[in-house]
Amino acid sequence: MVLDEGALKLKSEDSSTLDRLKEAIRRKRPGLLSRGVVLQHDNTTPHSANLTQQWLQRYGWEILPHPAHSPDLAPSDFHLFGPLKRHLGDMAFETEDDLISELRNWFDNLDVDFFRVGINSLLQRWQKCIDLHGDYVEK
């Protein structure tokens, strides 16, 4: 999903994003919503906004605790952005649509194992964070 420019500044956008996520889960993983959703996200302003918190509480989604400023525990930071940055390299795009097209192409061609490795490494990173009493986990 590609957010509009400035969307992260809008607290209502986060709940709209969560509405779209909830609908995607309902379509793609029937039954998962009734078993309960555990969401991992950082503590940035949109994620901690009252509207977002009310949405999460209304639907009973559990939030995993996330230490402040811990990109080492966010799969997008430790697993996704590096390969994406290498892929984009020195590419230049004439329009935003060209960039979005390239991003969609890149994501569509990622193997399911790419995502599996990133998610599976979370367990080890969480354990390291616990062992280090919340200190930064590098690798």
Automatic annotation (TrEMBL):
Cited InterPro entries: RNaseH_sf, Transposase-MT_Hybrid
Single Gene Ontology MF annotation: nucleic acid binding
Gene3D superfamilies linked to this entry: Ribonuclease H-like superfamily/Ribonuclease H
Name of the featured protein: Transposase
Organism: Plakobranchus ocellatus
